[in-house]
Amino acid sequence: MSNLSFENLQDWRSAIKNILNLPELRFVGIICNTGCPFEGNDKKGIVPIAEIDQYKGDQY
Question: Could you read off the pLDDT of 14-38 as tens digits, one per residue?
Fold first, then answer.
């Protein structure tokens, strides 16, 4: 398994923006190895189904 580097946040944001161009997706998110959200974004004009805070921590 390789380690991901979160040093260049702008690259992650650009990737998220490109992925959100897929019509089937509503949200793209990246989580760190502890399970906490690192970066993410909703598709513009779409009402989120859940708030990101619902997915933080050890709720599963």
Answer: 888 899 999 988 888 888 778 777 8
